[in-house]
Amino acid sequence: MVRHDRLLLKYILPVLALLVALVYFPLVKGLITAFRHYNLFDLRDTSFIGFDNFKAAIGDKTFSFAQIFLNTMIWIFASLLFQFVLGFALALLLRKPFKGRGLYSGLVFYTWALSGFAIGLLWSWIFNGQFGLANDILMRLGIIDSPIGFLSDPRYAMVSVVVVNVWYGIPFFGIMLLAALQSVPNELYEAATIDGAGRVTRFFKVTVPFVAPVIVSTTLLRMMWIMNFPEIIFGMTNGGPANATNILATQMLYKIYKEYDYGQASAISFMIMAILFAYSLLYLSATSRKERDF
Amino acid sequence: MKRIVLVVMVVLAATLAISCGASNGKVQLTFLEVLTSPERTAMINGIIADYEKLHPNVTINLISPPYESADNKLTMMLNNDEKLDIIEVRDYTLRQFVNNKKLENLEKRLAAWSEGKDLLPIALASARTADNIAYIIPQFFYIKALFVRTDILAAKGITVMPKTFDELIADCKKVTNKKKGQFGFDWRGKSSEFKFSDLIQLSDVPNIDPNNIYKTADGAFSLATPEAQAALVKYVNLFKDSVPSDGINWGFNEQVNAFISGVTPFLIQDPDTVSLVDKQLGRDKYTVIPLPVGKSGKAVVDYGFASLGIPSYSKHKDAAWDFIKFFSSAKENAAFCKQYGPLPVHASTYADDPFFSTGVYQAWRTEMSDQDHYLFVKYPLGSEKWPAWPQTHEQTMQSLLLGKISPTEATAKFADYWK
């Protein structure tokens, strides 16, 4: 038995070492930084300052934390909802074979391969309030008289960046859900049809329960990614105008790239982690109960 | 097993040889640039190739991180004492490298360098920005001037160029026809937008301290003076009257685009914009004139620079200095600036090469020589409050332009920040 345990230990040791070196060590180091005065501008003083970094981030006079938090929630849930619904619809459309389906799926899923910054820059031109394509099309169609400041008007800025994020994220759900849908046995549909189930009933009683585990895991994953995805906002609005599109992740990047304040950035990153952790626990406990109901 | 050990040893030896940078008696220098752009990187590689031809025992490895993250990458590498011998230091990053004792003092080397005496006074002053010690050798200057679309103004009947900011603002209003998509002033709304508002606001204040643009000679906070507050209202009105509302989100690219497409015929920019505009527009459609002056009779002009330095821990300081001398020589510096756009650092270049004293470059020559009208000023780059200032200013200014706060409240926020 002892020999067996040792053997086991040998097997898991490399992975454990990698995990410690690449995940836990940086994590702990980051946590320590969050409690230190750590600004690259001047590293002569890196003393421990308790919760000052957290207090400074939350009590920021220029960047209202309440607004950043609200922005983050809108950014996550609006993006997630539309990405999921449209991605699911796309997967359903692509499930039945048709001529050129491979090429078509390739084209549709292509956006998923682009970098966030590149997308941000591309769309910032499309949404440009003066020479943008979006304004040009809307004006030619006679829908608007004068150009809309999609990225310069706080009323539209958040909607605009969410639209881009949705555009970017649909293929992810499309790919994952299409794979799940293709594994639903046809016999189930046949049996359901014989029992007199219509399209809607089949969808909710056969399709959805069968792909439910995939839905749970993909939405959870995606929520985490969206929360940690500042690139599009960075490329399009810099968090502006006047804080209107600033989220926790962009604020964290500001602290690193512009202010060199790694202490405050670490503090914000731990808030992000805490939120994600709490959310994951809640979400998984809620959905596991629901899965049992099916 | 033996074979594996042998392979590991060979790999280790090879890595060691490379990291020591001294395989076969050759010196290998590592050079990191920060203002990366494809054309500029190609130019630097050209200079490196020329240098390596003249010095066969030296090879120079150029690292070109993407522009957005380059300063951070450099900071991280310096703080970990990673192999670097020549680094590009900007006015913005100099203070932190000096604070963290990462830069070599170049005073002795500068004193012994024959071409050092040819450096412009402004270049020498910039070299000694931190603690009055030359930690760096400036390579290029960025100074703002007024780009003007002469073709559009002529069509509107404006032939006399504005000499004051008030005249400029009046011209902008005259040109604007919002219904036709014609506006006057090329606004900067994000990414260092404070450089534009400060210029217009603080040129109205009579006694700015040249060593700190945010102070007056008697020590008051310059942005809170009555003149600056009045000018802030003027600046907001300029936005309302003569700028597309989208300008609030404009950075450098949008500015250049608005100028080239003719949406806004007045643009305040640095000399490296010249080559961009030349390529897309041509000099028959635009010109560059010296900045207008404010109510103080002067324009407060800040100057940015990029420079080269040697990390304090470099093992090849002499070799690195030799390359910096080559790179910074009047000949190489002038050739580089001609292609890339910014202003060169040697006095002889301006005297010998008509390129930098005629045509559009005349505007900068005037600004640099006319001390009655142009006051060169510094930002408080050494202050620990500096790094967070640009974002704070941007958010506050955007709130002001959107009407969320009043000019008085904005001024109060600025004053509170610098308290």
Your description of this structure?
The complex is a heterodimer of chains A (294) and B (419). The mean pLDDT of chain A is 90. Chain A is flat, with a radius of gyration of 24 Å. Chain A folds into two domains: 1-34, no CATH class; 35-127 and 163-293, Orthogonal Bundle (MetI-like fold). Chain A has helices at residues 2-34, 52-58, 65-95, 101-109, 116-126, 133-140, 154-182, 186-194, 199-227, 231-236, 248-257, 262-293. Chain A has 294 residues and is mostly helical. The longest helix of chain A is centred in the N-terminal third of the chain and has 33 residues, at 2-34. The two termini of chain A are 42 Å apart. Chain B folds into two domains: 21-142 and 305-356, 3-Layer(aba) Sandwich (D-Maltodextrin-Binding Protein, domain 2); 145-303 and 373-418, Periplasmic binding protein-like II (D-Maltodextrin-Binding Protein, domain 2, 3-Layer(aba) Sandwich). In chain B, helix 2 links the parallel strand 1 (27-32) and strand 2 (58-63). In chain B, helix 2 (38-54) runs antiparallel to helix 14 (330-340), helix 9 crosses helix 10 and helix 17 packs antiparallel against helix 18. Chain A binds chain B through residues 39-44, 61-63, 117, 128-131, 146-147, 149, 151-154, 237-238, 240-243, 254, 256-261, and chain B through 68-69, 72, 75, 79, 95-96, 99-100, 178, 181, 189-191, 244-249, 251, 254, 257-258, 261, 263, 384, 386-388, 390-392, 394-396, 398-399, 401-402, 404, 413, 416-417.
Give a summary of the structure in a few sentences.
The complex is a heterodimer of chains A (294) and B (419). Chain A is an all-alpha fold and 294 residues long. Chain A has helices spanning 2-34, 52-58, 65-95, 101-109, 116-126, 133-140, 154-182, 186-194, 199-227, 231-236, 248-257, 262-293.
